[in-house]
Amino acid sequence: MTDFCPAVWPEDLVPKQIAGCRDCGLYKHNSRMIWGEGNPRASVMIILDNPGDREDRKTGSPFVCGTRQTLQFAAKESGFKPEDLYTTYILKYKPTRSYPKEETRSICIQHLYSQITEMAPKLIICLGNIAVQSYFNDPNASVKELRGRWHTINGIPVLTGYHPLAIRRRPNLMTSFLEDWAQLSDRFHGKCP
């Protein structure tokens, strides 16, 4: 990944009717609501657990964090263009301290369901155990057990994979991560059903 130069993907603005949502309590964590990033009309939706750091704390300028670097590297290696992808989250705020996880996720995932209905992606890749457990509505779901094959949720083909930060912490997972992205790319490009 050393020769890969990532770019800041454009942030998708929070819809006016959702901005300032206080249903889950994460607004108290001094982070801002992040709806998603990339192309809102993309065919592929990437689902992560929650947004990470997005701006330099001193300057407020956007930067490319490790999660996005790893995502963008895998996307490029798999033949995706930035306009093919949209990234969003189960939680729309970055948690900065303890919170009631199950209750909060069950509230916040309603926003994700609305996004999926509105954006109508053709394919979804769900990354990391937390995102997979939430989206599959199964607290015991495991990426290790589910990856490598397609699942269908509400009529949309869904692939699972390791979280990009897991790849950074355990580089030996990169091969599996790239295999999942290659499988996603093959389906996107019509190379497999």
Q: Short summary of the structure?
A:
By secondary structure, the protein is of the alpha/beta class. The chain contains 6 helices and 7 strands; from the N terminus they run βββαβαβααββαα. 34% of the residues are buried.
What can you see in these coordinates?
- Strands 1-2-4-3-5-7-6 form a seven-stranded mixed beta sheet, with helices on both faces.
- It is 33% helix and 15% strand.
- Strand 3, helix 1 and strand 4 form a beta-alpha-beta unit.
- The protein has 193 residues and is an alpha/beta fold.
Strand order of the largest sheet: 1-2-4-3-5-7-6
How much strand? 15-25%
Oligomer: single chain
Helix % is 25-40%
Q: What structural class results from the helix and strand content?
A: alpha/beta
Tag the structure with descriptive keywords.
193 residues; alpha/beta; Uracil-DNA Glycosylase, subunit E; globular
Helix and strand arrangement:
Layout lengths: L10 E2 L23 E3 L5 E5 L17 H12 L7 E5 L11 H19 L3 E5 L1 H7 L7 H4 L4 E3 L2 E6 L2 H6 L4 H15 L5
Parallel strand pairs: 3-4, 3-5, 5-7
Antiparallel strand pairs: 1-2, 2-4, 6-7
